[in-house]
Amino acid sequence: MIRAFLSGMWIHVVMFSRNPFDLSGVALWPILYASIAYYLLDAKNDPELLLSASLGAAVMLMWSLVVIGSAAALEQQRWLGTLELLVAAPVPFVVIIAPITVASGCVGAYSLLATLAWGTLLFDVPLSIEEPLAFAVAVPAAVLAIGMLGLVMASTFVLYRAAFHLGIAMQYPVWIATGLLVPLSVLPDVVGKISWFLAPSWGFRALQEAALGATPWPEIGMCFVVSAAYAIVGTLCLHAFVHVARARASLKLT
Amino acid sequence: MNALRVFFVGGLTSYRALFNWISPWIFVPHTLGYPVFEILFFAYLGRFAEVQSDEFFLIGNAFMGIAVTGFFGMSSAIAGERRSQTLPSLLASPANRLALFLGRAVPSIVTGVLVAAIAFAICAWILDVRFTGGELWRLAVAALVSSFACTAFGLCLGSLGFRGRNVSLFADMVTGSMLVLSGANVPLERLPGYVQAVSNVLPLTHGIEAGRRLGDGESLGAVSGLLGTELAIGAVYLVVGVALLRFFEYEGRRSATLEAF
Predict the structure, then answer these.
(1) pLDDT tens profile A13-65
(2) Interface test with B, best of A36, A184, A194 (most B CBs within 10 A)
(3) Cα distance from B220 to chain A (closest Cα, Å)?
(4) Which pTM was predicted?
């Protein structure tokens, strides 16, 4: 199963990285959101705020790629007629789906590089990572956590044919609820409570704390804790939803 | 007469095929949830940055909702036919191309405009932004003008669908760029001069500015210059779009790319 997971993840990272045009979109979107934040915040005197905005914009795209990329990948399997074959394979279905969502998060790491480079070159955002080791651990921890939340979402994608649309609809609510560009302090209190359950929130905090030199390790630890929780919930949901989809014979519908 | 039949019957049939199968549990969150949360996201970002009012972001992003449908309506119409492998058959028919694809795009655009209006109302209620009846009526006029300009621009984008496979992704990237370039979320005076120069020849920029002034209580006459400019920009893109549609259909046939997806 480990081999299936790792080879599946590698194949999808390569597939997602194959088309330069697709990758230009991966680089463009976080740059746009970061640019809006730079122009609105106009925080030349607060470089830490701009660096946080860069990281927030990058994590926003990581989530988008996970939720849209995995939905699109599953929709593609439907169109190609291979979804049924994957469900029928002897390898547990979760080991086939999880690499897709985690690979989408890995591709999101490109956006991190693009946003940091854009901010540094055009907006003089200081590229000083206070704790490089913690940052190096925080990146894969964030990718894993966000990818595993994508696994929970992906379980619904198996059930619904219009999963791609559902994926698109899930972008802004999660961006808002996790305080990536808009601090939770300006949102209603209940949103802060919701953010505790959402991986992008912990991934962003881990990256932010590592970059700004605070205490990133508890947040990095939380990334792994929520990843484990999502893996359990995702596996259960996937098992249940695959059963429903098989009972309804809807796996082949496009 | 035949072109009108192609426009209405073809468009209606295509629209039903597009949306009939989607469960309301997906259709409603997707079509309505996205613009509502987009408006709220930028309004709260504006509050945090202490830049402009909620009304600024409400009007800017509601107009963006209209732009999205204008841009995507045409590109999705062509990309959808390509994906279904029906594009070559359609182009083999003698039907008027503009009627063929505009007929498929217009129902989606009308849906988008309605959705933007509903999202506008919901967010105005959440953010406690109020307008008088007269202001709303004048805002609708500005939205209609912007919708025309965006649809004309969408025609240019859609024509690329005859030549390239990823026109939807391209339209997505252009729409994303409009978040910055149109002044929907960033006051234009904060942008560099060369970006402002680009903004001035894009659809939506003048429509949004007119919408904001109308929302502040100004009359239609006071913003007639802005609306006239938006109409003129839309007319230019319409002419360019029709020319591109012909050119890229020829190019698609010549390079045998109509079936690639």
Answers:
(1) 888 788 777 777 778 888 888 888 888 877 556 778 888 888 898 899 888 88
(2) A36
(3) 29
(4) 0.86
List, as one string, the DSSP characters of chain B.
-HHHHIIIIIHHHHHHHHHTTS-HHHHHIIIIIHHHHHHHHHHHHHHHHT-S-HHHHHHHHHHHHHHHHHHHHHHHHHHHHHHTT-HHHHHHS-S-HHHHHHHHHHHHHHHHHHHHHHHHHHHHHHHT----HHHHHHHHHHHHHHHHHHHHHHHHHHHGGGT-S-HHHHHHHHHHHHHHHTSSSS-GGGS-HHHHHHHTTSSSHHHHHHHHHHHTT--TGGGHHHHHHHHHHHHHHHHHHHHHHHHHHHHHHHTT-TT--
Question: Per the domain annotation, does B22 fall within a domain?
Answer: no
Domain that holds residue B137: 2-15+27-254
Mutate to test the interface with B, among A32, A45, A63 (most CBs of B within 10 A): A32
ipTM metric = 0.86
In a domain, B20, yes or no: no
Indicate whether B261 belongs to any domain: no
Contacts of A21 in chain B (CB under 8 A): 166, 169-170
Q: A82 at the B interface (CB within 8 A)?
A: no
Q: Is residue B153 part of a domain?
A: yes
Q: Name the residue facing B23 among A162, A171, A183 (closest C-beta).
A: A162
B29/A contact by beta carbon, under 8 A: yes
pLDDT digits (tens, 9 = 90+) for B138-148: 999 999 899 88
